[in-house]
Amino acid sequence: MTAGRRYDRHALIRAHLDELRHRNAAEPEDPETDYAKLVEYERNLSAALQRLFEIDLSAGMRAAGVSSRDRYLLFFLRSAALSYLAIQHPWSGYLEAGGLVTALEDAGLWDAVQASSDRIVRANRDSEREHMEILDLLVRHLLGARADHSFTPADLRPLGVPDEPPVDPDDMW
């Protein structure tokens, strides 16, 4: 439900990250799939929030109408965002790893691999937090007086963003 939902600069950052995650991925062949609908929603949400916040987070060094210093900051923002999106662990991408776990157990490696994997996951969470801190610092600076603005679903609707996001296929597993 959208009652009380607000889109602040953290939502702007999250939407930008979601858009970047899909930007270099293959386009869904069937626009009616849940994945295709999610990609379209995330692109529209990112574009709408950037429009409402009056900023183009993707412009980087090509940004028009901003100081050369801010162009460097936008360029670094992209670098930090891509670095955030690259964070993963050895189990990333596995939907079902039962066979691998069995093989590791049979080899007597499971306990050590699991312990190391748990440490990697904890380190990744720390890295994600620090990346988000950098992204927030940069976006807050670039937005200036607009940094504390927030918007409602009613503000986004005229820009083509529905009140509810489509189903995320990854949440179905």
How are the secondary structure elements laid out?
Blueprint: H1 9-23, H2 34-53, H3 68-85, H4 98-106, H5 110-143, H6 153-156
Order of helices and strands: HHHHHH
Using the alpha-carbon principal axes, give the shape: globular
- The number of helical runs is 6
Q: How far apart lie the N and C ends?
A: 22 Å
Q: Which whole number gives the mean pLDDT?
A: 90
Topology, number of strands: 0
How big is the Rg? 19 Å
- Strand pairing plus helix content: what structural class? mainly alpha
The biggest sheet, with number of strands, parallel, antiparallel or mixed sense and barrel status, is:
none
Share of residues in helices: 55-70%
**Uncertain residue segments:** none
| Content of β-strand | under 5%
Question: What can you see in these coordinates?
Answer:
With 173 residues, the protein is mostly helical. Helices cover 58% and strands 0% of the residues. It is built from six helices and no strands. The protein has helices spanning 9-23, 34-53, 68-85, 98-106, 110-143, 153-156. Helix 1 (9-23) packs across helix 2 and helix 1 (9-23) crosses helix 3.
Write a short abstract of this structure.
The protein is mainly α. Helices cover 58% and strands 0% of the residues.
Key terms for this structure?
single chain, 173 residues, mainly alpha, 6 helices, 58% helix, globular
